[in-house]
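BUG: 3D viewer hangs when loading the predicted structure for this chain

Environment: internal workstation, default settings.
Expected: structure renders.
Actual: progress bar stalls at 90%.

Input used:
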Amino acid sequence: MPVLTLEKPAVRSVSPVFRTLANGLRRPLRMPSWAVAAAVLLVGVAAFVAGRHKPAHHYVAYFGYPLVLDTTTGKACYAAPPKPSQVQDAAFAIDGTAPTDAETQSGPAIPMCGKE
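Structure tokens produced before the viewer hung:
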């Protein structure tokens, strides 16, 4: 009666340099636990500090498209340069009162987003 057996695959010889490298990668990395904890703590503190200095800005529509509200800072800014008809003249206030000379500004008082 015939017997079914598996063929042995051809043995590939690996150079000693690769064998040494493979053995080095298989060994466990021995490191003190305090060093791992310190590295994790350092990465966490650095990420927290970076997020505090450069927070993500979220913009919400505010009185039409070009004018948006930055919810991070609570300030209004223009997402795109406004058309001259959309910018209110600083010489005439909405309530009809004229500002004094100290309050008069040249150009829009609201900055472009990202350039505050």
